Amino acid sequence: MELRQIQYFIRVVESGSMGKAAMALDVTTSTLSQQISKLESELSTRLLQRQSTGVIPTGAGLEFLRHARAICHHVEQASSATRSERLSGKVSIGMAPTTALKLALPLLTEMRKRYPKIKVQIVEGLSAHLTTLLDTRRLDMSMRFDIGEDPRMSALPLLKEKLFVIGNASLPGMPRGKRTSLEQIADLPLILPTGRHTLVSIIINAFNRKNIRPNIVLEIDGLNTLMSAVQQGMGATIHPSSAMALIQNEDILSVLITDESLFRCTILTAPSDEELSPAALATRVVLKDVVRSLIQSGDWDGAIRQFS
């Protein structure tokens, strides 16, 4: 099996067509087809299903694609590392927007100090999207709020975040003290993301356990727009303390919700150590150090470290 054949296979799957892939690779369609056929013969299985509209991967092809991407990723990392006498390469990390607000810049700053030749890429998105990117090896690691069932991935609990009600002091029903409860904000007009967010499920489940129906007046998926609506007094929101980084209004209050069931757990998921590049392993160590430092210094309000 040749690396070239693996690269050809990935391009064909991504293009969905032998002809398009051949053009992108600057080879003839017959040459590309022959190399794919050799690969299938060596593996003794069919990887692609030919159709009138193009090609799609078979079940075996999908599984091979996952490993093929990992192989090419590590070859790229190895090539990059051998061109430098120091640890180098590219490491991509998935984070939710609220997590990135608190963690991204301190991580990038510390990585630049310790490993200036490692290029760290921060990818923001929802847990489901980041999971897809991680499964297809387009991310090296991802910070998620649910681990699910995937024996192929390692999971490291990083932190537990308490949640805060954030709103304008002039908003009717907005609590004024340092702490509040779900019962006290039952009638408070809330602005939340849509139900596909893990955070919303956590909030709704906590209200349900108290037999309280929250007063949701707006649903906004974009964090910047949501926090702008909060600053305009359209309602309050429930978020981790990191969301306050977007607030530029001195009249906005952040009040801790004391209900024990209302918290968000952040878990760092990644392939096994054997699959991770040296650069990714080094980045994981730095990430843990940065999380530990932010929590110990009190810069991450409401966060509790979950690793030793």
UniProtKB/TrEMBL annotation:
GO terms for biological process: regulation of DNA-templated transcription initiation. Keywords: Activator, DNA-binding, Transcription, Transcription regulation. Residues 1-58 form the HTH lysR-type domain. This is LysR family transcriptional regulator. It comes from Advenella kashmirensis W13003. GO terms for molecular function: DNA binding; DNA-binding transcription factor activity. It comes from the Bacteria. Belongs to the LysR transcriptional regulatory family.
